[in-house]
Amino acid sequence: ASATQALAHNLNASERTHFVLVPMMAQGHTIPMTDMAYLLAKHGAQVSFITTPLNASRITGFIDHAVAKGLAIQFVKLRFPAVEFGLPEGCENVDMIKSRDLFKNFMDACAALREPLVAYLSQQRQSPSCIISDMMHWWTGDIAREFGIPRLTFNGFCGFAYLARYIIVRDNLLEQVEDENELISFPGFPTLLELAKAKCPGSLSVPGLDQIRKNMNEEEMRSSGVIINSFQELEALYIDSFEQITGKKVWTVGPMCLCNQDSNTMAARGNKASMDEAQCLQWLDSMNPGSVIFVSFGSLACTAPQQLVELGLGLESSNKPFIWVIKAGDKFPEVEEWLADGFEERVKDRGLIIRGWAPQVMILWHKSIGGFMTHGGWNSTLEAICAGVPMITWPHFAEQFVNERLVVDVLKTGVEVGVKAVTQWGYEQKEATVTRDAVETAVSKLMDEGGAEEMRMRAKEFGVKARKALEEGGSSYISINLLIHEMGNPGKCI
Ligand code: UDP
C-alpha cells in the first residue's frame, strides 16, 4: 500500500478531515462526486456523502465496495420532498423530470434538504471540516456559514468550460445579444474562443430559474474555492487563468474516474448496467483491437427520433463495428419500431445495441474500442481521455459545445460531426440536422486506417498523463493531499 493509504488506516475518526459531499442528483454530477468520496477517503479523510433513497439505490455497487474496503464514507440518505414540491413520488433525479417546467420544482425540493442536512450535521459529535457541494446547491453556502466552515463548489466542468462560463456570467454576455446565432467572444480567454449564443452554457431558458441562477452565482462567488475534475497536464493554461481571473483557490483533483479500477464497481458505475456485462465483454473480445466505435450520449441528452434514425443509418453505411447506447426506447416507440424493422437484423454481425444504462467506462477501457462518438459531457470526455480513445463530438446542450472546442481545437484528439443546432434539455426536437453522410464521414475520418494516426497518438499520450496525475506524487494526487491538509486541522492530517 502507498504511504498515504497506510497513514489513512492509522488515523482515527477525530483526527480525520471530515468532508460533507452534497452532489446534484444528476448522473453527470453524482458519479464524479462518488469518485471524489472514494479518493478523499483513500487519502485519509472522512466523508459524509449526502444522498436520497432513490439515488442511493442506484449506487449500491459503490456503497458495497466502500463498505467492503472499510473506507470512512458515511452514506446519509435524506428523504427527498418530491410530492411537497409538485413532483411525482420518487422523482429524485434530474433524469426523471418529465418536463423542463418542473425543473424549478426540483431545485426547490433540493433546497428544502437544508433543514434535514443541518439536523444531521448538528447530531455529529464534531463539526465537519468542509462542505463540498454542487454549484447548483447554492443553499449549502448558508449551512457552511452556520457551522463556520468553508464551502467549496464543484460543478463537473473542466477548467476550459469553467473559465468560459465565468466570463459569460461576469460580463453578462448572453444578455447583450438578441440573436441566438450571433457569435459571442470571450474577453480575457487565453486562446481564441467564439460560440453562437445558443451554444453557450447558461443559454437555456427554464421557467422560474432566474432567481435560482442568481443565488447560485452569488454563492459561488462567496465560496472558499473550486474543485475541478481535470488535471494540470491537460489544460493548465485554462485552470491557471480561471484561478487568476476569479481569485479563487482551485484544486485540480482529476481524472477522478481513475480512482477505482475494480472491474465490478467500474461496470456498475452510476447505475446497474441494463445488459449483462459478461456478454458485453464477450462481444468486445470478439472484435479486432481498435476497430469498434462506441456511441453514447450520456444520461440526459434527448436526441430527436429522426436524428437517431439518421445516426443509425450513418453507422450502418460506415461498415464499422459499433456499440450504440440508446435511451430513447421508452420515450420514442417509433425508434424502437425502426430498430426492429430490419436495422438490427442488417447490422447484427457488427452492431451491439444497448438499451438503457451502459457500463461505459468498462467499454471505453476495452482494447477493441477505437473511437467514441460522444455528446461531450465532461465526464464522458474525460473518461475517453483516460482510456486514450479519440472522439467524434456531437454536442447537444449545456457546456458540451465548449468542451467540443477543447477537444477539437486545443487537445486535437477529436473530430466534430458538425452539429449546427442545439438540442436543449427538456425541449422536443423533431428534425434531424446531422445527416447520415456526416456521420459516415466523421466515422471514417476517425476510424479508417491511417486517417487519424496523429490524433490517436495524442489521445494515448493524454491517457498516460492522466494516469500519472493520480499516481503517488502526481499533480492531482498532491492536490488532493493539500486539500485535505488545508481543510483539516493543521498538523493532524496528511
Ligand atoms: N454513463 C454510463 N452509462 C450510460 C450513460 C452514462 O455509465 O449509459 C456515465 C458516463 O460514463 C459518465 C456519466 O454517466 O460518467 C455521464 O456524464 P457526462 O458528463 O458525460 O454527461 P451527462 O449525462 O451529464 O450529460
Automatic annotation (TrEMBL):
Q: Which Gene3D superfamilies match?
A: Glycogen Phosphorylase B
Which residue intervals define the domain Glycosyltransferase N-terminal in the entry?
A: 19-256
The enzyme's main class, written as a single word, is: transferase
**UniProt keyword annotations, A-Z:** Glycosyltransferase, Transferase
State if Repeat is listed as a keyword: no
SUPFAM superfamilies linked: UDP-Glycosyltransferase/glycogen phosphorylase (SSF53756)
| Family indicated by similarity | Belongs to the UDP-glycosyltransferase family.
- Check the record and name the Pfam families matching this protein: Glyco_transf_N, UDPGT
Its protein name is: Glycosyltransferase
Q: Name one GO molecular function term.
A: UDP-glucosyltransferase activity
Q: Thylakoid: present as a keyword of the record?
A: no
- Source organism per UniProt: Miscanthus lutarioriparius
UniProt xrefs under InterPro entries: Glyco_transf_N, UDP_glucos_trans, UDP_glycos_trans_CS
Q: Which top-level group of life is the source organism from? A: Eukaryota
Q: What is its EC number?
A: 2.4.1.-
